[in-house]
Design brief:
This protein is α/β, with parallel strands linked by helices and 455 residues long. It folds into 3 domains: 2-62, no CATH class; 66-197, 3-Layer(aba) Sandwich (Rossmann fold), CATH 3.40.50.10860; 216-380, NAD(P)-binding Rossmann-like Domain (Rossmann fold, 3-Layer(aba) Sandwich), CATH 3.40.50.720. It is 48% helix and 15% strand. Strands 1-2-4-3-5 form a 5-stranded mixed beta sheet, with helices on both faces. Strands 7-6-11-12-13 form a 5-stranded parallel beta sheet, with helices on both faces. Helix 12 links the parallel strand 11 and strand 12 (349-351). Helix 16 (402-424) packs across helix 17 (433-452). The longest helix is centred in the last third of the chain and has 23 residues, at 402-424. The chain is globular, with a radius of gyration of 21 Å. It starts with 12 loop residues before the first helix and ends with a helix. The structure holds NADPH dihydro-nicotinamide-adenine-dinucleotide phosphate. NADPH dihydro-nicotinamide-adenine-dinucleotide phosphate is lined by residues 174-177, 179, 218, 246-251, 270-272, 328-330, 333, 353-355, 380, 383.
Length: 455
């Protein structure tokens, strides 16, 4: 199928593009959704940029540079042979080596990884750092597996992946189901196979090339983004009630920063349900959650038993009244009905810690209600930004201090906010952060691709 060419003066530019994309990538619904979310802003913008249009830049960006898919075979504790499927989507290296996390979750498939890699390209561009976009993972479920099983899986996964990555080629990191334990096993196996100690993966432990603030960066960044959005209205985080979903890395550190800034986070969730603690989650309770999730690997329901609050099985937290909402679990966890509920209950701002957690219909409602809405590619970019700083520290064989890295993270989030504001401010002064993030992220990548010529 020929590459799609946008033409000037086409009023139906977005539906026509989506028709072409959907035919070309049948059944990849998450990927269609992610491209639509960017295309809705970038395609109309192209009308004033014939140079990008003639070079078919946006169409080219919907085709990853390459996708590697491979068999991962490992043995469980009972000696039974297990088979999983691994992937790496190397989406675009126009402005730097491919960079993006690895997800281990039973739902992982090509569509989900293509959406994540596509998003990652624009997000990485927005950070201002020289990072391309990629994403990888496997349909492996770490839940209920012993440490040794996870180790054997990670080693088998890296045994194939190692030939496709490198510190100047492709630098993976963590994501859902991949935390410091999994990163350590994978980095150890890479080092053994390549016989090289290089910064080939980020999110490493501090003892072997990790960076201060990396573990906190995504959650902190998501709250910093909200802080900057509120400041445009002369408002602050202090005293606000916040609803947070998830209870993994991003959710935990979003709650941590919210507590530090004087907000009251009242919910956490996992894939089984959510807890509602009207007293607020404080530092002591958060430490307990960290132990529950990162060490004992238990369920969030135990929080309700421990601290005597409500647990809502099989539900998501968006019906709880709040000022601010932070979806930090997974894609498509907030639909139009839930968005309407948030708005009705007085929510004034949403900052997306997870990737694409809000459905397009929910985003439409946030924007119609003119509440503050920071899309994931801006709001959760702090994680990859500090990963970029980890790469720099590995290259210069130095480690910066926690204060220095937090200062750099804070500045990067402020710069991202400013880029979104510059391209997203509308005639009535409302800032469409999604539009701003899409256009600012696209521009830098497009300029590089144009300069390289047709390839
Ligand atoms: P974790 O694995 O640490 O935590 C994921 C959390 O989300 C868990 O509480 C998990 O619950 C919940 N969750 C996962 N899948 C579902 C589901 N289908 N329905 C409901 N809840 C679910 O992952 P992270 O915190 O690292 O990642 C969370 C989100 O943030 C993802 O969208 C990720 O892509 C994004 N992100 C992460 C970055 C990072 O630095 N870690 C960087 C940028 C974005 P359960 O335990 O029951 O599965």
């Amino acid at each position: 199928m020929a590459i799609w060419h946008t033409k000037k003066d086409q009023p139906d530019i977005v539906p026509r593009f989506m028709h072409w994309l959907e035919q070309r990538n049948p059944g990849e619904t998450e990927f269609h959704q992610a491209v639509y979310e960017v295309g809705i802003n970038v395609l109309p913008y192209l009308r004033n940029h014939p140079e990008y249009m003639e070079a078919a830049i946006f169409g080219r960006l919907t085709e990853p540079d390459r996708i590697v898919s491979f068999r991962v075979v490992w043995e469980d504790d009972n000696g039974k042979v297990q088979i999983n499927r691994g992937y790496r989507v190397q989406h675009c290296n126009a402005i730097g080596p491919y960079k993006g996390g690895i997800r281990f979750h039973p739902s992982v498939n090509q569509s989900i990884l293509k959406f994540l890699a596509f998003e990652q390209t624009f997000k990485n561009s927005l950070t201002g750092l020289p990072l391309g976009g990629g994403k990888g993972g496997a349909d492996f479920d770490p839940k209920g597996k012993s440490d040794r099983e996870v180790m054997r899986f990670c080693q088998a996964f890296m045994t194939e992946l190692y030939r496709h990555i490198g510190m100047h080629t492709d630098v993976p990191a963590g994501d859902i189901g991949v935390g410091p334990r999994e990163i350590s096993y994978m980095f150890g196996q890479y080092k053994r196979l390549a016989n090289q100690f290089t910064g080939v993966i980020t999110g490493k432990r501090l003892a072997f090339g990790g960076s201060e603030i990396r573990v906190e960066a995504t959650g902190y960044g998501t709250v910093y983004m909200m802080e900057d959005m509120l400041a445009t209205h002369g408002d602050t985080i202090e005293g606000k009630t916040a609803v947070v979903s998830g209870s993994g890395n991003v959710a935990q550190y979003a709650v941590d920063k919210l507590i530090e800034l004087g907000a009251k986070p009242v919910t956490l969730s996992d894939s089984s349900g959510f807890i509602y603690d009207p007293q607020g989650i404080d530092c002591h309770k958060l430490r307990w959650v960290r132990e529950l999730k990162d060490v004992r690997r238990g369920r969030i329901q135990e929080y309700a038993d421990e601290f005597g609050c409500e647990y809502h099985a099989g539900q998501r937290p968006w019906k709880v009244p709040c000022d601010l909402a932070f979806p930090c679990a997974t894609q498509n966890e907030l639909n139009a009905e839930e968005a309407a509920m948030l708005i009705k209950n007085g929510c004034i701002g949403v900052s997306e810690g997870a990737n694409m957690p809000s459905r397009q219909s929910a985003i439409d409602l946030f924007q119609q209600a003119k509440i503050l809405f920071a899309p994931s590619k801006a709001a959760n970019a702090g994680g990859v930004a500090v990963s970029g700083l980890e790469m720099t520290q590995n290259s210069i064989r130095m480690s910066w201090t926690r204060d220095e890295l937090n200062r750099q993270l804070r500045q990067i989030m402020t710069d991202i906010h400013a880029r979104c504001e510059r391209h997203g401010r509308e005639s009535d002064d409302y800032v469409n952060y999604l539009k701003g993030a899409n256009i600012a992220g696209f521009e830098k990548v497009a300029e590089a691709m144009l300069a390289y010529g047709v390839m």
